[in-house]
# Entry
Amino acid sequence: MTPDEFRQHGHAMIDHIADYMRDVASYPVLSRVAPGDVAALLPDEPPSEGESWDAIIADIDRVVMPGLTHWQSPNFYAYFPATTSPPAILGDLLSSGLGVQGMLWSTSPACTEIETKVLDWLADIINLPEAFTSRSSRGGGVIQGTASEAVLVTMLAARARAGHPPNPIVYCSSQAHSSVIKAAMIAGIGRDHVRLIDVDESLAMRPNRLAEQIRRDRADGFSPLFICATVGTTSSGAVDPVAAIGEISKREQCWLHVDAAWAGASCVCPEHQHIIGGVEYAESFNFNPHKWLLTTFDCSALWVQDRASILEALSITPEYLRNQASDSGALIDYRDWQIPLGRRFRALKLWFVIRHYGVEGLRKHIRRGVELATLFESQVKNDDQFELAAPRSLGLVCFRLKGDDARSQALLTRINDSGAAYFTHTRLPNPASPGEDQFVIRAAIGALQTREEHIRAVWARLQAEASQIHSD
Ligand SMILES: Cc1ncc(COP(=O)(O)O)c(C=O)c1O
# Structure
């Protein structure tokens, strides 16, 4: 493909994406294909000769579109939002177009220095303490692929800092994301060395239970190592008390990591920054701009107060990576802050997003999500058939039909099968029956295109489906 042909096909591709953005609300949100349907449309053999670009492009509509679940639809309320936006897409495109590897400072100084600066900006926007920025003597930020990588990297750093103690123990709440356990499995700490600490009625970690468990573990000869506090749990958006956990962590000389994968984005708004109160106790803090902050996957921002521990855990320099700039020790080589060697120029999309929307634009986006979730919450409260299953957290509303689980399960199936919207579920403790949990539907609101009209329409649809279940 010559540069001129690329220009022509590139313009057509941008047109295609712009049309998709315009029309995304018109597709059934959850893909309707059955397992194997997409693969069956592909030949068993790859083409031996290159195909025409027209033939390749024709397969977007024939093969790809039916097999998509439309994450950018204004009616996508499943999981957590994985928002994208035009400036982020253009940043990603530029990253692909430039095709650089930013593993070392010298392999593209712009890749490293823009990333460092943009993460300092983002730290300032969410009001992280100065110690997490590169302006401090010891801290700094890095873009990881995912929150799962961030927790693994910091767990490895914690172990290195502690001098690789025997029988290390990891702590998180029973509501923490499974990536904490997975990190312990990968790190060789083992899932049976992860303690899931009990939660209170708001589903936040009970600090006194954490302290008791650490005491017991020490008495039993284990080495308490790493505590993960979650700000915005996946199931219900619960917020662990970071300051109280931080006091314990400091006393016990553990590494405190704060996983704010989804909720961290809300801290661009001063009125939500209290959720990370106490973050100064944390060694590391992570949130995903690729969730609620309009930055196309993958972009997970991790800040640490002590970058030396990460380097100690992950730095290794074979001869073929040595260069004068790195040897000077005066710069950042981000390969030492992550699991892989190679890295994309992900900072471009985040830089474009922050510059295009500005801090006020980002706040507006988050505030709209919270307002719409508040509207959704009030609809739930005002309808006798429904109940809230947990207090609304920012843009997340957990709700259910009153009565047995089967009714909410049926409602979820009906609404998702209708194509009008896509919701997912979880199980949360049943306040009426201690020790039991119940089926809950999650409404995670925050897509770029979601507006009041979508919330009102989806609520009307939920009510209509619910009344069908009633009369079935
Ligand atoms: C609280 C929390 N932590 C971690 C993760 C994992 O995120 P990632 O896909 O970036 O690894 C999620 C995903 O939703 C999450 O909600």
User: Anything to note?
Assistant: The CA atoms of residues 404 and 419 lie 25 Å apart. The chain is about 45% helix and 15% strand. The chain has a mean pLDDT of 96.
